[in-house]
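Subject: Protein record for review, amino acid sequence with backbone structure tokens
How to read it: Take the token row as a discrete description of the fold.
Enclosed: The protein record, placed directly beneath this head.
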Amino acid sequence: MTNDGSRREFFRGLFGTAVTASMAQSVLAQRSSGEGIPTARLGRTNEQVSIICLGGWHIGAVEDKKEAHRIMHRAIDEGVNFFDNAWDYHDGGSEEVMGDALAADGYRKKVFLMTKNCERDYAGSKRNLEESLRRLKTDYIDLWQFHENNYDNDPDWVFEKGGMKAALEARKEGKVRYIGFTGHKDPRIHLKMLAKPFDWDTAQMPINIMDAHFRSFQKEVVPVCLNKNVGVIGMKSLGGSPTSPQGRIPTETNITAEQCIRYALSLPISSLCVGIRSMKDLEQDVAIARGFKALSDSDKEQLIQMAAAEGGDGRHEMFKSTIHFDGPHHRLQHGFALDA
């Protein structure tokens, strides 16, 4: 089943209503087509971003910084125009290496640059932004997201402590163009953020095969984003693992990395953040993205069924049920010991 009608039926089963299913299909239909890497509209914005986004944490983990520069330049030349980062990645090292790469040969003008604010208060948020701008060697951030909303009180803190005030000021000053948020712990926290009195431009969340069965962002949060015209940025398509570059799902199951990525890209997301640590990683991800066509309903259903036996208990998505995937800055922010 590959026609639009059948895909609407798949999304109706996933999201529960025909209206939301139609919105989901519309998001996929709006992607550019051709032989290169497709682009998609980023939510309520008119920005067109590549359907894969180069992850900032992983590029900061490349030991040879000159090689990291080559990877980023090659990614842009191949059509990847969306770059991810965060203030706390490798203690600022990720932003610094990315800033150096983008400062060369006009590459900054070729990318939609996202980084993340790790503070919740006004003064800390302003400090984060200025440090990110300096490290990234740029006058403005295209998308600034409140990072790791993983604790139930994070949404309240962002508004009550002044973080949102700082973001709005930065947008007015032209230092930030769009504002979003991220998190990987629980769909309830995302829904709390989406219910706040602010029109979010983006929301970043785990999007993977196992997620369909456990604390599901794709079932609970994506429909709300579609209805609010919030751009969905996927992450952790391989399950995320600091010890396995290949990802927890491909390492521990018979589902391949390519199947994981193709499934995520077949959902109504604007872009999928992928971890790239080598030129080989880049070539593999570019090959998947180039000329991408969404999986048929039967293929998506087959993958969901393959994940059903082990997906329901969260064993392959430990970032949702443990503190061990939470960044050290955010653990300390909430009073947790780093060895907790």
Observations:
- The first strand starts at residue 39 and ends at 41.
- The radius of gyration is 19 Å.
- The CA atoms of residues 24 and 267 lie 8 Å apart.
